[in-house]
Amino acid sequence: MSDASAKLPVLDAASLSVTIGGRPIVSGVTFALERGSLTALVGPNGAGKTTLLRAIVGLIAAQGEVRIEGRSIKAMSGRARARLLAYLPQGHAFNWPLAAAEIVALGRHPHADPFSRTTDADRQAVSRAIATTGIEAFAARSVLTLSGGERARVALARAVATEAPILLADEPTASLDPRHQLMVMEQLRETARRGGAVLAVMHDLALAARFADRVLVMAQGRLVADAPPQEALSATRIGDVFGVDAIMVEVDGAQVPFMRAPRPA
Amino acid sequence: MHPPRSHINLGLSLLVGALAVLSLTVGAASLPLAAAWHGLIDGDGIAGLIVREIRLPRTILALLIGGTFGLAGAALQGLLRNPLAEPALFGAPQAAAAGASLMIAFGFAGVTSFAVPLAGIAGALVSIGGLLAIAGRRTSLTVTLLAGLALASFAGAATALILNLAPNPYIALEIAFWLLGSLEDRSSEHVVLILPFLLLSWMLLSLCAPAFRALTLGEDGAASLGVDIARTRILVVVGVALGVGASVAVTGAVGFVGLVAPHLVRRAVGSDPARIMLPAALAGAALLTASDIVVRLVPAATEIKLGVVTALIGVPFFLSMILRERKFLEGVPA
Q1: Quick one: what percent of chain A has pLDDT higher than 70?
Q2: What single-letter DSSP state applies at residue B182?
Q3: Other residues' Cβ atoms within 10 Å of the Cβ of residue B189
Q4: Are the CB atoms for B72 and B244 separated by under 8 Å?
Q5: Residue A25 is inside which H or E element, if any?
Q6: Is the dihedral of CA B5, B11, B13, B15 positive or negative?
Q7: Minimal Cβ distance to B216: which of A83, A89, A94
Q8: Nearest to residue B207, comparing CAs of A106, A116, A104, A162?
Q9: Mind spelling out the 3-state secondary structure of B198-257?
Q10: Which of A11, A259, B140, B274 has its CA 20 to 30 A from that of B290?
Q11: What is the rounded distance in angstroms from the CA atom of residue B63 to the CA atom of residue B16?
């Protein structure tokens, strides 16, 4: 990569707005993802986090601009965009009972030639994704026989298999047990460190504070904070945005919020 | 997990070939296999006439149309991500039959004119296009099936109106019989008439195979992988309409092959909606050819109609699938 592109943010969004049925869901959101960083996107239910992610991926119409390394996403074909930007939707629903490894291989779709032949590069990327997410043990099983947590990890492996520099993940730790939550967060940080960027919607503010390099806080469609975790997730802001009294606890040198009680409405 | 796909396709091809040979030897005039074979090769005498002019077109049509229905069913199931999708449940053959009977009843076109398949295709296009427009992007099964029921009923009413207003009662009776679905007395002209439409249909639907596989992740997941959902929907609507519309213009209403064929091969090839397409087409060809053989073997004063047989097999099959998928259909997570 050239020096110029190394200085550009991996992804940046400028004045992104989404209106659904006349109601503004996302209003004028501007931010940038730096190379090598894991960014957490937090906010109360209905703040517009998922809509923001869907707008970045191009799944819903939005005003404003999204650029990958300075290039507008609108000028790219769907497959070119998909090779640069992997998206892990919420929920991990699989419509057909394919084997987990076959689901992971779907991540290679943007790389497929017109005859959709599987190349060695595809096979290696799928094996790497299966190994790094630790799903070897059930890779051959039908996804419909897997537990919720196992499915979540298969879905993550699918997004990782694309080997896109940017990963947008919507609640990647939902429905996971504590051990796997930590493993997935480590996995996301590693993915970012490889030279891309990861943006993850999260509800667990403690995990966000511990793992994210930067935290975006959304409320009512607007970005109300874009800062390192200790600044973005202060007890005051958590009180204001989430309506929860939090106390700060030090874990491994990081200030991590612990939710004590809801504030009276 | 599953036997190699090439073995399954080879096995199905052999089955289709065997049924095709059998189909050439079955009929009102009993011809031994050897006589039928000589008739096919040199076309001499009565045997040649029977095999080449009567049984060969009938067999080819059964293979082509059965294959088309199997492929169309697999494609609709892939697009809607549901094993219960089938053109007949969405009113496609009914609407195609309405279009075709309009042409015939009012004498706009002879039965072997291109106007008949074109009208059939137009009818199927309206019903499948209308269905996907009503069901919208978030394809809920309930909405899709209810919309399909409404469209099928409307197409049935339209056909009834055409029969009702037909200027000539004999033509009305003829159409009513034709609507039951049959391959009796079809000629090579019919093959030539619909083959271009069927080839185009197969091509369009095959193009969508990778998109069907990506749709396993849902519409958002597939779109994020670069699948153009709108384009896929249009290709499927046009592909199914071309195949089903043209087929129905020749056979009359023959339903449920598109539901049964993919289901029969799913156990052997797995649920991958792309990998199932060729085996589903082969199974469809085998099913329709076998049904058309059964129709000729049943001793009856009047030949039992092909569409009656496929519906008699298909509807109980559909009910058994509903029973098996009841939990899923009631919205209870499996």
Answers
A1: 96
A2: -
A3: 11
A4: yes
A5: strand A23-33
A6: negative
A7: A94
A8: A116
A9: HHHHHHHHHHCHHHHHHHHHHHHHHHHCCCCHHHHHHHHHHHHHHHHHHHHHHHCCCCCH
A10: B274
A11: 8
Burial of B109 (0-12, 13-18, 19+ CB in 10 A): middle
ipTM of the complex: 0.90
B21-58 tens-digit pLDDT: 999 888 777 777 777 777 788 877 777 778 888 899 99
Please name the helix (run of DSSP H) or strand (run of DSSP E) that holds residue A38, with its range, or none.
strand A37-42
The A85-88 sheet, strands edge to edge: A85-88, A166-170, A197-201, A37-42, A214-219, A222-227
Q: Which of B46, B30, B79, B96 minimizes the C-alpha distance to B246?
A: B96
Residue A77 DSSP SS3 = coil
The answer to whether B138 and B223 are in contact (CB under 8 A) is: no
Q: What is the overall mean pLDDT for chain A?
A: 92
Q: How many other C-beta atoms are found inside a 10 Å radius of the C-beta of residue B198?
A: 20
- In this prediction, residue A1 carries a pLDDT of 46
Q: Return the half-sphere exposure (C-beta side, CA atoms, 13 A cut-off) of residue A148.
A: 11
A201 bridge partner residues: A41, A170
Task: Give backbone dihedrals phi and psi of B254, rounded to 5 degrees, phi first.
Answer: -125, 115
Contacts of B272 in chain A (CB under 8 A): 96, 98, 102
Q: Is A117 on the interface with B (CB under 8 A)?
A: no
Please tell me whether residue B132 adopts helix, strand or coil conformation: helix
CA B95 to chain centre: 13
pLDDT at B333 > cutoff 70: no
Burial bucket for residue B224 (CB in 10 Å: 0-12, 13-18, 19+):
buried
Q: Which residues of B touch A140 (CB under 8 A)?
A: 1
Note whether A82 contacts B224, CB cutoff 8 Å. Answer: yes
What is d(CA A111, CA A129) in angstroms, rounded to the nearest whole number?
15
Separation CA A183–CA B3 (nearest Å): 36
Q: Are A222 and A29 in contact (CB under 8 A)?
A: yes
Q: Within an 8 Å CB–CB cutoff, is residue A89 touching chain B?
A: yes
Place of tokens 């011809």: B31
